[in-house]
Structures are given as structure tokens and as C-alpha cells.
Specification:
Helices cover 17% and strands 28% of the residues. By secondary structure, the chain is of the alpha+beta class. β1 and β2 form a beta hairpin.
């Protein structure tokens, strides 16, 4: 796939060389949120994705069995060009090429003294790790994703 700028003066994403890959990625990105658009959710107007027959999309069985995690670390308020505060980014890649190095053991501390009168405990977990890409060419950050 040739990497090209996001906007090529009106040409379609298929003409730019990432249309089919983007279609597949879009399905994978929307699946954990039951195909609801994050931009729409942020604006308080969720809409359910539809198939070619205008039927609501369902999560494929292969995907629904996988536990999902959510995060607020991925911004949906980035600025790209004149689109201010409405864009996001996607990191694409072969994550088998990402190496994770643990600098120290995972430290777990249980603190019960501050909460002794209520019977509660506090658990503090700390880890220090680094990542290194075996082949940086295996990763690409797609910027300027605008709903």
C-alpha cells in the first residue's frame, strides 16, 4: 500500500489506495461500541450502523466472544488542517512486531491502614516497561480521521 496524504483534492479513498483496508478497519473499530459512531456518541446523538438493506448491524459471533476494553486515552478531539477538534488518529500495524521489555517486576502493594476503620483496602500496582518496534515499517499512524 502506498502511503498518501489524507486529502488528494477530491479523489476517493479507494483511488488513494486505502479504501478497502479502511472499510475492514472501520468495521473492527466500530464493533466494540455496537457500531455506534464515537463522534455521534460524544455529541449525544448515537446512531446504529446499517447494512446494505438498511438493517441494524450486529456484532459478528467471532468478535462478540472477544473481551473488549475501552479507553479515553485515544483522543477524538484532534485538529488536522482546518478541521479543529473533531479528528482522531488510528495506529495500524502488525503488533507481533512490537517488543515489550519489562524494566522491573510488577509491584503490588496492599494498604489497609488508612482504611482500617471502614474495613477497606487500597491496592497500588506499578510496572515499568518499554516498547521497541522490530520493524518500524510494520506500523503507520493514519491521522485526520474525521467522522
Amino acid at each position: 500500500m502506498t502511503r498518501k496524504p489524507w486529502d488528494k483534492g477530491g479523489t476517493s479513498r479507494h483511488q488513494q489506495g486505502y479504501g478497502t483496508a479502511w472499510d475492514k478497519l472501520r468495521k473492527a473499530v466500530l464493533a466494540p461500541d455496537n457500531y455506534l459512531c464515537q463522534h455521534c456518541l460524544a455529541k449525544g446523538r448515537p446512531t446504529v450502523g446499517k447494512d446494505g438493506n438498511n438493517n441494524p448491524l450486529s456484532v459478528p459471533a467471532m468478535v462478540s466472544a472477544v473481551p473488549t476494553l475501552t479507553t479515553t486515552a485515544a483522543s477524538i478531539t484532534e485538529t488536522q488542517g482546518t478541521a479543529s477538534g473533531v479528528c482522531s488518529s488510528i495506529v495500524l500495524g502488525d503488533f507481533t512486531q512490537m517488543l515489550i521489555g519489562m524494566r522491573e517486576d510488577i509491584n503490588i502493594r496492599v494498604l489497609d491502614q488508612p482504611f482500617a476503620d471502614t474495613g477497606e483496602i487500597m491496592i497500588i500496582v506499578h510496572a515499568r516497561a518499554d516498547i521497541q518496534l522490530a520493524h518500524s515499517e510494520s506500523f503507520y499512524k493514519l491521522i485526520g480521521i474525521k467522522p
